[in-house]
Amino acid sequence: MRAVIPNAITAAALCSGLTGIRFAIVGDWEKALYAIVLAGVLDGIDGRIARLLKAQSRFGAELDSLADSLSFGMAPALVLFLWSLQDLPRFGWFAALGFAICCALRLARFNAQIDTEEQPHKSAGFLTGVPAPVGAGLAFLPMFFWLASGEDLFRDELLVAGWTVLIAVLMISNLATLSWASIRPGKDIRLPAIALVGMLFAALLTEPWWTLALICVIYLALMPVGVIRYAKVKRQRKAAAARRERDPLDATG
């Protein structure tokens, strides 16, 4: 049962992502987004539950990657195409394809590096590029604004195509992005952080689309922070390497 539970959650995330496509086919955009957001929530807890139950396996990792490719690559690409990109002949479909392919490439790169010891970003507590679930959420930012405001500007096929391509590139980029491991709130801000999470949950219940759009905007605003912090780590590593070359007996590095 320890092995079944996390894999069952992964399968549920896969079904949720595919159900989002079904809702998009009939034009129920809100339910389509809810389904893919739910897939993201399930994807965020399956790995943690596997570690908690000590049930990590290579099978689970491969299943998780396949589920992510469908839920956060193919599903968002099809939803965006049915919602807006189909109004842009040829290039709209290529934008959707590019997003799905870049998501698959990102996941393939992640799997290929699982057993790699030298991972500069990971060893410093960062991620490489935008994670697949986050990329799906960012790709839906025009939809969030459209549902929140009702403005048809956010459904413009040229805008959506350009935005989709940009997020696809960010997913396969080598940019250092912040991860949960790099977020360590001090003791003096833990209670405000708990209160903020509670207010965020209430906002998701009352104004889900504005709240999701705000979360995406905040993530985009924090991306330069990750790049700057990793650049600082690289400088520190180079300085330590230079000290070791000057004094090989220096064990402090």
UniProtKB/TrEMBL annotation:
<keyword id="KW-1133">Transmembrane helix</keyword>
<keyword id="KW-0443">Lipid metabolism</keyword>
<feature type="transmembrane region" description="Helical">
    <location>
        <begin position="124"/>
        <end position="146"/>
    </location>
</feature>
<feature type="transmembrane region" description="Helical">
    <location>
        <begin position="212"/>
        <end position="231"/>
    </location>
</feature>
<feature type="transmembrane region" description="Helical">
    <location>
        <begin position="158"/>
        <end position="177"/>
    </location>
</feature>
<keyword id="KW-0808">Transferase</keyword>
<feature type="domain" description="CDP-alcohol phosphatidyltransferase C-terminal">
    <location>
        <begin position="189"/>
        <end position="224"/>
    </location>
</feature>
<dbReference type="InterPro" id="IPR048254">
    <property type="entry name" value="CDP_ALCOHOL_P_TRANSF_CS"/>
</dbReference>
<dbReference type="InterPro" id="IPR012616">
    <property type="entry name" value="CDP-OH_P_trans_C"/>
</dbReference>
<feature type="transmembrane region" description="Helical">
    <location>
        <begin position="189"/>
        <end position="206"/>
    </location>
</feature>
<keyword id="KW-0472">Membrane</keyword>
<dbReference type="GO" id="GO:0016020">
    <property type="term" value="C:membrane"/>
</dbReference>
<dbReference type="Pfam" id="PF08009">
    <property type="entry name" value="CDP-OH_P_tran_2"/>
</dbReference>
<dbReference type="InterPro" id="IPR043130">
    <property type="entry name" value="CDP-OH_PTrfase_TM_dom"/>
</dbReference>
<keyword id="KW-0594">Phospholipid biosynthesis</keyword>
<keyword id="KW-0812">Transmembrane</keyword>
<dbReference type="InterPro" id="IPR050324">
    <property type="entry name" value="CDP-alcohol_PTase-I"/>
</dbReference>
<protein>
    <submittedName>
        <fullName>Phosphatidylcholine/phosphatidylserine synthase</fullName>
    </submittedName>
</protein>
<dbReference type="GO" id="GO:0008654">
    <property type="term" value="P:phospholipid biosynthetic process"/>
</dbReference>
<keyword id="KW-1208">Phospholipid metabolism</keyword>
<feature type="transmembrane region" description="Helical">
    <location>
        <begin position="91"/>
        <end position="112"/>
    </location>
</feature>
<dbReference type="Pfam" id="PF01066">
    <property type="entry name" value="CDP-OH_P_transf"/>
</dbReference>
<keyword id="KW-0444">Lipid biosynthesis</keyword>
<comment type="similarity">
    <text>Belongs to the CDP-alcohol phosphatidyltransferase class-I family.</text>
</comment>
<dbReference type="GO" id="GO:0016780">
    <property type="term" value="F:phosphotransferase activity, for other substituted phosphate groups"/>
</dbReference>
<dbReference type="InterPro" id="IPR000462">
    <property type="entry name" value="CDP-OH_P_trans"/>
</dbReference>
